[in-house]
């Protein structure tokens, strides 16, 4: 129990217990925040990796299409090369 005061002892004990409860929960809340921040960072990294892979596949498809066009001879000559 707390030191004798003019406040009712039950109120003093209630406030003291609430303070102890908050202090007891602080490590768990802090770890929850750490886990949440790590999860967000990891999700962002995965999203960036998926985006990079998608962009790589688009470039690969464009290069393949251009190569097939050249092999089949269906590529129009560039405008600068046709001028005499």
Question: What quaternary form is this?
Answer: single chain
- The outline comes out as rod-shaped
Order of secondary-structure elements: HH
Determine the N-to-C terminus distance.
102 Å
Number of strands: 0
Class derived from helix and strand content: mainly alpha
Q: Tell me about the biggest sheet?
A: none
Number of helices: 2
Tally of domains: 1
Beta-strand percent range: under 5%
Which range best describes the helical content: under 10%, 10-25%, 25-40%, 40-55%, 55-70% or over 70%?
over 70%
Contiguous runs where pLDDT drops below 50 for at least 5 residues: none
Instruction: Give the mean pLDDT.
Output: 81
What does the radius of gyration come to?
A: 34 Å
Brief rundown of the structure:
This is Glycerol-3-phosphate dehydrogenase. The chain has 84 residues and is mostly helical.
Protein described:
The protein has 84 residues and is mostly helical. The protein has one domain. The protein is 81% helix and 0% strand. It has two helices and no strands. It starts with 8 loop residues before the first helix and ends with a helix. The mean pLDDT is 81.
List keywords for this structure.
Glycerol-3-phosphate dehydrogenase, Killing_trait_RebB, mainly alpha, 84 residues, 2 helices, single chain, 81% helix
Secondary-structure blueprint of this entry?
Blueprint: H1 9-72, H2 79-82
Protein name: Glycerol-3-phosphate dehydrogenase
InterPro entries: Killing_trait_RebB
């Amino acid at each position: 129990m707390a030191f004798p005061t003019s406040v009712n002892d039950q109120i003093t004990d209630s406030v003291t217990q609430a303070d102890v409860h908050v202090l007891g929960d602080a490590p768990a809340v802090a770890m929850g925040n750490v886990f949440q921040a790590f999860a967000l960072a990891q999700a962002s990294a995965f999203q960036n990796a998926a985006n990079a892979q998608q962009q790589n596949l688009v470039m690969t498809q464009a290069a393949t299409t251009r190569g097939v066009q050249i092999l089949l001879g269906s590529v129009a000559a560039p405008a600068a090369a046709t001028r005499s």
